Amino acid sequence: MPLSSTSPGTKKRGRTLNDFFPSLGSGASPSKKRDRSLNAASESAAGSTPPGKKTKVASEEGSPMSNLAAANTPEAMQDKASKTDSAAELATVVAAPPDTKVVMVTKYRNDQADAPVPALDQINDPATRELLRLEYETLDPSWLRVLAKEITKPYFLKLKRFLQEEKAKGQEVFPPPEDIYSWSRYTPAPEVRVVILGQDPYHNNNQAHGLCFSVRKGIRTPPSLVNMYTALERDYPDFKRPNHGYLAAWAAQGVLMLNAALTVRAHNANSHSKMGWEEFTDAVIQYVNEKRSQVVFLLWGSYAQKKGSGIDKKKHLVLKSVHPSPLSAHRGFFDCHHFKQTNDYLRSHGKPTIDWGKISES
């Protein structure tokens, strides 16, 4: 029995982990998704919709080339965009099958996730370009669009210099560089439906791989995750507890598993906190809060609740509980029912639910 409790008539996502991430079974970070929309954008005509505007959803028939200049004046383009938006919304309702609950979703203008993918060679300063090479090469394109300005801010460049110094001193840092942004590749910006916030990566060998609470296969399941499995069993009695703590199957379904700090010095918890990562991950949360809608935020423990204090509760569902750590889980985490409440909320808003039991199959 799938643990998503998908209601009859709900169309489930038809992809599997191996469709996108062939190396998933080995515990390796998935390869970066190819951004197919980039080629289409680059082939657009000179009069195409500028960044930040909605693209035209249907071509107008019978528009002679002689009228092209007039049709592309600012006034004409604004009027056309307004008419196109209305027509697209109407078409959505008309095309909906009988007995289907139609949920009108507002597409945000100036949504950075729809902008062209920035290129590393656009950075003029060679030193800055080298500092940000990892971000440009390993962030998912959708998140790189969102965070392109953020990573050029002074605080972030200072953070990158600090990480360079750690390496120069011979300090071992977790996770390895290629996995620091794996959360972005498992869960691209437009696909976020749930957010789980952690604090910093596991600091022992071969544990951290870029997803909060998750560890690589072959590594003993951490105590906090063991307690999460217990809570899942209470929400879904058919949940089959896996013999590992590898949660990539959740992330691939739209669960953004984000730590507040994305790196840590080996065997030294919180050693990279207050170095700039918190401001960076605040920008990630801010994007989801402002540009996505009807997202479930799971805030476990006072640290996560403080970090998520600015989330718009009218627009999203915010679920709070004590941390699943053995030190606090007995104070209400086991019976918080957050996994079931998450799916109830997603289903009520016409969104695919999370198959929490998928991790048992991977």
Task: Describe it.
The protein is an alpha/beta fold and 362 residues long. It has a domain at 178-360: Uracil-DNA Glycosylase, subunit E. It is 35% helix and 7% strand. It is built from 14 helices and 6 strands. It has helices spanning 17-20, 36-42, 68-71, 74-95, 126-131, 133-138, 141-147, 154-168, 182-186, 223-235, 248-251, 277-291, 302-307, 338-348, and strands spanning 173-174, 194-198, 255-259, 264-265, 296-300, 317-321. It has a 4-stranded parallel sheet with strand order 3-2-5-6. β5, α13 (302-307) and β6 (317-321) form a beta-alpha-beta unit. The longest helix has 22 residues, at 74-95. It is globular, with a radius of gyration of 22 Å. The relative contact order is 0.14. The model is unreliable at 5-110 (pLDDT under 50).
Architecture (CATH level 2) name of the domain at 178-360? 3-Layer(aba) Sandwich
Distance separating the two termini:
16 Å
CATH class descriptor name of the domain at 178-360: Alpha Beta
Question: Helix-strand pattern, N to C?
Answer: HHHHHHHHEHEHHEEHEHEH
Helix fraction by DSSP (H/I, runs of at least 4): 25-40%
Based on CA atoms alone, the radius of gyration comes out at: 22 Å
Uncertain residue segments: 5-110
Please tally the β strands and state the result.
Answer: 6
- Report the CATH topology name of the domain at 178-360: Uracil-DNA Glycosylase, subunit E
Structural class: alpha/beta
Q: Specify the overall morphology.
A: globular
